[in-house]
Amino acid sequence: MKCFSVYILLIFAFTSGYSQNAGYRIKLVNRQNPERIRYVNEGQRMKIFNTDSTAITGRIIIPTDSTLQIDSTVIAIDQLYRIKSNSAGLSMAKVASGVVFVIGVLMVVNSMILTYTIFRSDDVYQVILLPVVFIYGSGGTVATLLSGSALFLNGNNYDLRNKWDMSIVPVSKTSE
Protein backbone atom coordinates (compact mmCIF):
# COMPACT_ATOMS: atom_id res chain seq x y z
CA MET A 1 0.00 0.00 0.00
CA LYS A 2 2.86 2.35 0.82
CA CYS A 3 4.51 1.62 -2.53
CA PHE A 4 1.22 2.32 -4.31
CA SER A 5 0.88 5.74 -2.63
CA VAL A 6 4.46 6.63 -3.61
CA TYR A 7 3.69 5.74 -7.24
CA ILE A 8 0.53 7.84 -7.19
CA LEU A 9 2.45 10.75 -5.69
CA LEU A 10 5.18 10.47 -8.35
CA ILE A 11 2.62 10.30 -11.16
CA PHE A 12 0.82 13.35 -9.78
CA ALA A 13 4.09 15.30 -9.46
CA PHE A 14 5.14 14.39 -13.00
CA THR A 15 1.81 15.25 -14.62
CA SER A 16 1.42 18.52 -12.75
CA GLY A 17 4.96 19.53 -13.65
CA TYR A 18 4.37 18.60 -17.29
CA SER A 19 1.09 20.51 -17.45
CA GLN A 20 2.78 23.64 -16.13
CA ASN A 21 4.93 23.98 -19.26
CA ALA A 22 4.50 27.42 -20.77
CA GLY A 23 2.90 27.16 -24.18
CA TYR A 24 1.72 29.81 -26.57
CA ARG A 25 -1.67 31.13 -27.64
CA ILE A 26 -2.74 33.28 -30.55
CA LYS A 27 -4.10 36.61 -29.39
CA LEU A 28 -6.46 38.42 -31.78
CA VAL A 29 -7.34 42.04 -31.04
CA ASN A 30 -10.05 43.89 -32.94
CA ARG A 31 -8.78 47.15 -34.46
CA GLN A 32 -12.07 49.06 -34.12
CA ASN A 33 -12.73 47.85 -30.58
CA PRO A 34 -9.46 46.94 -28.80
CA GLU A 35 -11.39 45.59 -25.82
CA ARG A 36 -12.63 42.76 -28.03
CA ILE A 37 -9.94 40.10 -27.67
CA ARG A 38 -10.08 36.50 -28.86
CA TYR A 39 -7.64 33.71 -28.03
CA VAL A 40 -6.88 30.64 -30.13
CA ASN A 41 -5.36 27.77 -28.19
CA GLU A 42 -2.85 25.32 -29.46
CA GLY A 43 -4.51 22.19 -30.81
CA GLN A 44 -7.64 23.87 -32.19
CA ARG A 45 -8.71 23.06 -35.73
CA MET A 46 -8.23 26.13 -37.91
CA LYS A 47 -8.03 27.06 -41.55
CA ILE A 48 -5.35 29.62 -42.30
CA PHE A 49 -4.76 31.57 -45.48
CA ASN A 50 -1.30 32.93 -46.26
CA THR A 51 -0.24 35.67 -48.64
CA ASP A 52 0.42 33.36 -51.60
CA SER A 53 -3.29 32.35 -51.57
CA THR A 54 -2.92 28.87 -50.15
CA ALA A 55 -5.31 27.58 -47.53
CA ILE A 56 -4.10 25.07 -44.97
CA THR A 57 -6.47 23.23 -42.64
CA GLY A 58 -5.59 21.28 -39.52
CA ARG A 59 -4.72 21.51 -35.85
CA ILE A 60 -2.54 24.45 -34.89
CA ILE A 61 0.77 23.90 -33.16
CA ILE A 62 2.67 27.00 -31.99
CA PRO A 63 6.38 26.12 -31.79
CA THR A 64 7.69 29.68 -31.30
CA ASP A 65 6.33 33.16 -30.75
CA SER A 66 6.63 33.99 -34.47
CA THR A 67 5.58 30.79 -36.29
CA LEU A 68 2.60 28.48 -36.59
CA GLN A 69 2.63 24.87 -37.65
CA ILE A 70 -0.27 22.98 -39.19
CA ASP A 71 0.52 19.32 -39.81
CA SER A 72 4.05 19.54 -41.23
CA THR A 73 3.80 23.06 -42.68
CA VAL A 74 5.52 25.85 -40.73
CA ILE A 75 4.33 29.40 -41.47
CA ALA A 76 5.53 32.74 -40.12
CA ILE A 77 2.71 34.82 -38.64
CA ASP A 78 3.53 37.82 -40.83
CA GLN A 79 2.62 35.72 -43.91
CA LEU A 80 -0.99 35.19 -42.78
CA TYR A 81 -3.87 37.35 -43.91
CA ARG A 82 -6.88 35.40 -42.64
CA ILE A 83 -7.56 32.79 -39.98
CA LYS A 84 -10.81 30.91 -39.65
CA SER A 85 -12.13 28.39 -37.14
CA ASN A 86 -12.80 25.04 -38.76
CA SER A 87 -14.29 22.81 -36.08
CA ALA A 88 -15.45 19.28 -36.74
CA GLY A 89 -18.74 19.99 -34.93
CA LEU A 90 -19.60 22.77 -37.38
CA SER A 91 -18.85 20.48 -40.32
CA MET A 92 -21.09 17.76 -38.86
CA ALA A 93 -23.86 20.32 -38.26
CA LYS A 94 -23.68 21.41 -41.90
CA VAL A 95 -23.95 17.81 -43.11
CA ALA A 96 -26.88 17.12 -40.77
CA SER A 97 -28.69 20.28 -41.85
CA GLY A 98 -28.16 19.30 -45.48
CA VAL A 99 -29.81 15.95 -44.82
CA VAL A 100 -32.74 17.60 -43.03
CA PHE A 101 -33.03 20.09 -45.92
CA VAL A 102 -33.37 17.25 -48.45
CA ILE A 103 -35.92 15.46 -46.24
CA GLY A 104 -37.93 18.69 -45.92
CA VAL A 105 -37.95 19.22 -49.68
CA LEU A 106 -39.10 15.64 -50.20
CA MET A 107 -41.90 16.15 -47.66
CA VAL A 108 -43.09 19.29 -49.48
CA VAL A 109 -43.01 17.60 -52.88
CA ASN A 110 -44.78 14.54 -51.48
CA SER A 111 -47.52 16.69 -49.93
CA MET A 112 -48.02 18.51 -53.25
CA ILE A 113 -48.38 15.19 -55.07
CA LEU A 114 -50.84 13.92 -52.44
CA THR A 115 -52.90 17.14 -52.67
CA TYR A 116 -53.06 16.84 -56.46
CA THR A 117 -54.08 13.18 -56.18
CA ILE A 118 -56.83 14.00 -53.65
CA PHE A 119 -58.33 16.72 -55.86
CA ARG A 120 -58.16 14.57 -58.99
CA SER A 121 -59.86 11.58 -57.40
CA ASP A 122 -63.60 10.98 -57.52
CA ASP A 123 -63.69 9.56 -54.01
CA VAL A 124 -65.26 12.08 -51.62
CA TYR A 125 -63.78 10.46 -48.51
CA GLN A 126 -60.21 11.33 -49.49
CA VAL A 127 -60.98 15.00 -48.75
CA ILE A 128 -60.70 14.07 -45.07
CA LEU A 129 -56.96 13.58 -45.64
CA LEU A 130 -56.41 17.20 -46.75
CA PRO A 131 -55.68 18.62 -43.24
CA VAL A 132 -53.17 15.83 -42.61
CA VAL A 133 -51.46 16.50 -45.94
CA PHE A 134 -51.30 20.26 -45.25
CA ILE A 135 -49.76 19.68 -41.81
CA TYR A 136 -47.28 17.24 -43.37
CA GLY A 137 -46.36 19.79 -46.05
CA SER A 138 -46.01 22.66 -43.60
CA GLY A 139 -43.70 20.50 -41.46
CA GLY A 140 -41.57 19.94 -44.54
CA THR A 141 -41.53 23.67 -45.25
CA VAL A 142 -40.39 24.47 -41.71
CA ALA A 143 -37.67 21.78 -41.88
CA THR A 144 -36.47 23.14 -45.22
CA LEU A 145 -36.29 26.74 -44.05
CA LEU A 146 -34.61 26.06 -40.70
CA SER A 147 -32.04 23.62 -42.03
CA GLY A 148 -31.34 25.79 -45.07
CA SER A 149 -30.32 28.68 -42.84
CA ALA A 150 -27.88 26.44 -40.94
CA LEU A 151 -26.02 25.70 -44.18
CA PHE A 152 -24.69 29.27 -44.23
CA LEU A 153 -22.90 29.12 -40.85
CA ASN A 154 -19.19 29.74 -41.27
CA GLY A 155 -17.72 29.94 -37.80
CA ASN A 156 -15.33 32.67 -36.72
CA ASN A 157 -13.49 34.42 -39.50
CA TYR A 158 -10.64 36.83 -38.63
CA ASP A 159 -9.37 39.16 -41.35
CA LEU A 160 -5.80 40.00 -40.32
CA ARG A 161 -5.28 42.66 -42.98
CA ASN A 162 -8.16 44.98 -42.11
CA LYS A 163 -9.97 44.07 -38.89
CA TRP A 164 -7.78 42.07 -36.50
CA ASP A 165 -4.24 42.26 -35.14
CA MET A 166 -2.59 38.94 -34.36
CA SER A 167 0.22 38.14 -31.98
CA ILE A 168 1.49 35.03 -30.24
CA VAL A 169 1.71 35.32 -26.49
CA PRO A 170 2.70 32.90 -23.72
CA VAL A 171 -0.21 31.22 -21.95
CA SER A 172 1.01 32.61 -18.63
CA LYS A 173 0.46 36.21 -19.85
CA THR A 174 -3.15 35.80 -20.89
CA SER A 175 -6.01 36.65 -18.59
CA GLU A 176 -8.49 34.12 -19.96
Low-confidence stretches: 17-21
Strand order of the largest sheet: 6-5-4-3-7-8
Assign a percent range to the helix content. 40-55%
Q: What share of the residues does DSSP label as strand, in percent?
A: 25-35%
Helix/sheet category = alpha+beta
SSE string, helices as H and strands as E: HEEEEEEEHHEE
Write up what this structure looks like.
The chain is an alpha+beta fold and 176 residues long. Mean pLDDT is 80; it is low at 17-21. The protein is built from 3 helices and 9 strands. It has helices spanning 2-19, 88-120, 130-150; strands spanning 24-30, 37-40, 45-50, 55-61, 67-70, 73-76, 80-85, 157-159, 164-170. It has a 6-stranded antiparallel beta sheet with strand order 6-5-4-3-7-8, with no helix packed on it. The protein has a 3-stranded antiparallel beta sheet with strand order 2-1-9, with no helix packed on it. It has 2 domains: 23-87 and 155-173; 89-150. 41% of the residues lie in helices and 27% in strands. Strand 4 and strand 5 form a beta hairpin.
Brief write-up:
This protein is an alpha+beta fold. The chain has helices at residues 2-19, 88-120, 130-150, and strands at residues 24-30, 37-40, 45-50, 55-61, 67-70, 73-76, 80-85, 157-159, 164-170.
List keywords for this structure.
alpha+beta; elongated; 9 strands; three-stranded antiparallel β-sheet; 2 domains; 41% helix; 176 residues; six-stranded antiparallel β-sheet
Helix/strand layout:
Blueprint: H1 2-19, E1 24-30, E2 37-40, E3 45-50, E4 55-61, E5 67-70, E6 73-76, E7 80-85, H2 88-120, H3 130-150, E8 157-159, E9 164-170
Antiparallel strand pairs: 1-2, 1-9, 3-4, 3-7, 4-5, 5-6, 7-8
Helix pairs in contact: 2-3
